[in-house]
Design a protein that fits this description.
This protein folds into 2 domains: 44 residues; 94 residues, no CATH class. The chain contains 5 helices and 6 strands; from the N terminus they run E-E-E-E-E-H-H-E-H-H-H. It has a 3-stranded antiparallel β-sheet, with no helix packed on it. The chain has a 3-stranded mixed β-sheet with strand order 5-4-6. Strand 2 and strand 3 form a beta hairpin. Helix 1 packs across helix 2, helix 2 packs antiparallel against helix 3 and helix 3 packs antiparallel against helix 4. The mean pLDDT is 86.
């Protein structure tokens, strides 16, 4: 593993343990060149998945892109990083269990929206405003009102539970 500080090619594993959600291995490493310590995470990849973009370009699935989008949508929201990691891992598992070598960017976007809807309505609206590419303020207003209506219905259901 290449050192992120000095780019030396060799590092030694000092400690290995499963992550908190048991979906990856956390490894503490020490660079043999500069002595710096850093952490890496190792995840299982069941198969090579290709993402088909809206313009029919194809590129390899990259979990980091989902992480970046979710982080941006959840910026300054009171959400724990562990919860966001679980959300992203769940989306990745959904994609992998589709059993397809190709998945569309639209399918991934819908999965992210579904996940964010359950986690935080503000993050959901933020993501949807970019993903759905609203052309007019009226489109955004209509979308936000449906989110508000669903949230109110969920609240009524929670209060009505015995």
């Amino acid at each position: 593993m290449r050192c992120p500080f000095c780019t030396h090619d060799d590092s030694q594993v000092k400690d290995s343990r499963p992550s908190e959600d048991n979906t990856s291995i956390r490894r503490r490493r020490q660079c043999e060149g500069c002595g710096a310590r850093f952490t890496t995470f190792e995840r299982v990849q069941l198969r090579e998945i290709m993402v088909v973009k809206t313009d029919n370009r194809r590129e390899a699935f990259d979990r980091a892109k989902i992480e970046q989008s979710v982080a941006l949508a959840c910026r300054k929201r009171p959400l724990e990083q562990e919860r966001l990691d679980q959300l992203i891992t769940g989306i990745q598992r959904q994609i992998e269990t589709l059993g397809e070598a190709d998945v569309t960017s639209r399918q991934i976007g819908e999965m992210v929206m579904d996940g964010l809807r359950q986690v935080d309505s503000v993050a959901y609206i933020r993501f949807a405003s970019v993903y759905r590419d609203f052309t007019e303020a009226r489109d955004f207003e209509e979308f936000a009102s449906t989110v508000r209506d669903v949230a109110q219905a969920d609240t009524v259901r929670e209060v009505a539970k015995p």
